[in-house]
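Recall the central idea of this unit: under ordinary conditions, the amino acid sequence of a chain determines the structure it adopts. In this exercise we apply that idea directly, starting from the sequence alone.
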Amino acid sequence: TMALHIFRLKDNTLQKVIAAHERPISAICWCPEDPQLLASCSIGMRMAIWDIENEEEKTALKVSEVPTMMDWAFGLEKIAVATSNGSINFWDYKANKTTRVFSVAEKSCKVLR
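Accordingly, the structure predicted from this sequence is:
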């Protein structure tokens, strides 16, 4: 199991370890409106939102493409997700569904990190 390790930046101490995914975690992002929420995704084609305070999974979604990057869409209850095949999707985590925004051919785009 792959875990989320939450550190306190002030003194670099480990605060929490949350067992999150069965495959390596490909991205995480903090909610800009609620510091207790964290989203993560893995190469196991699973995305989840975590309540850090209570150390529990709030919601999760199994997807058909490997998510490689994600970020909260500010002011919306959605998360933008980039996938390994060049698609950009919105994850509406309240309705627990994704909508494809656009896609590029897999060979025509490389993700640089």
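The chain has a mean pLDDT of 87.
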